[in-house]
């Protein structure tokens, strides 16, 4: 496994070896994103800075379950589709104790709600997950105690063991969404979704966008060298490559887009393998 303490790496592009700095790349990504945002520097630092406080938060059991439920609904769907429905999702899935008692009639009622996302598999998954979640809380006293039992801070292997465990226990937690949940509860991983994987591939950090573990490891390296929580690294890279207007962050599309990336303003094009016309 790669050395997580490494601060730079040696890569080859068309037979030419060069050194890449995680610190330099991230600083340029961050500064370029800031320059393209309509927010003032102070507003940018405040809004993006919220993501520097995800680690070691004291979440309640219901907060953990709420994040799990959101991940289930975001899985495989466009983010904006689910975001618009978060209030109605929260209405139908208020807390794990209540949900664990839902019967078939209540499940059908949720599915037939015209304002709700029409996906019965996801609805059933949330109900089943509430039962599993309740069992974990009853056994360990709290979900936080369950997380702590893996002693994640002691080794990367323990972190990956936790990932495998939740992926096995909970419905709709797959290879990517298990990382998504871990990221949202403040564990030291990023979500290796298609946006971040695309950027890392263009930077020659990974060879294939399906290399999820390698993507996560490089994300940890960015976090380590820049001394930023990995959730902050995650949101900066996501917004750098994500399409769609985001008024909260003052952005009209990102920069490293899948199609027609804005190479003319990209701060890291010197490291990029994307063919510029």
Which geometry do the CA atoms define? globular
Oligomer state equals: single chain
Biggest β-sheet strands, sense, barrel: 2 strands, antiparallel
Distance between the amino and carboxyl termini: 37 Å
Query: DSSP helix count?
Result: 14
SSE series:
EEHHHHHHHHHHHHHHEE
Uncertain spans:
1-18
Q: What class would the helix/strand composition place it in?
A: mainly alpha
How many strand elements?
4
Q: Strand order, biggest sheet?
A: 1-2
Helix content: 40-55%
Strand content: 5-15%
Estimate the mean pLDDT confidence: 91
Computed over alpha carbons, the radius of gyration is: 20 Å
Task: Give structural attributes.
two-stranded antiparallel sheet; 4 strands; mainly alpha; two-stranded antiparallel ribbon; 54% helix; 277 residues
In short:
The chain is mainly alpha-helical and about 280 residues long. It has helices spanning about 20-35, 40-50, 60-75, 80-85, 85-90, 95-100, 105-110, 120-140, 145-150, 155-170, 175-185, 195-200, 210-225, 230-240, and strands spanning about 10-15, 15-20, 245, 250. Helix 13 (about 210-225) crosses helix 14 (about 230-240).
Walk me through this protein's architecture.
The chain is mainly alpha-helical and 277 residues long. It has helices at residues 22-36, 41-49, 61-74, 79-83, 86-92, 96-99, 104-111, 120-140, 143-148, 156-169, 175-184, 194-202, 212-226, 230-241; strands at 8-13, 16-21, 245-246, 251-252. Helix 3 (61-74) packs antiparallel against helix 8 and helix 13 packs across helix 14. The longest helix is centred in the middle third of the chain and has 21 residues, at 120-140. The strands form two sheets. Strands 1-2 form a two-stranded antiparallel sheet. It has a two-stranded antiparallel ribbon with strand order 3-4. The chain starts with 7 loop residues before the first strand and ends in a 25-residue tail after the last strand. Residues 1-18 have low confidence and may be disordered. It contains 14 helices and four strands.
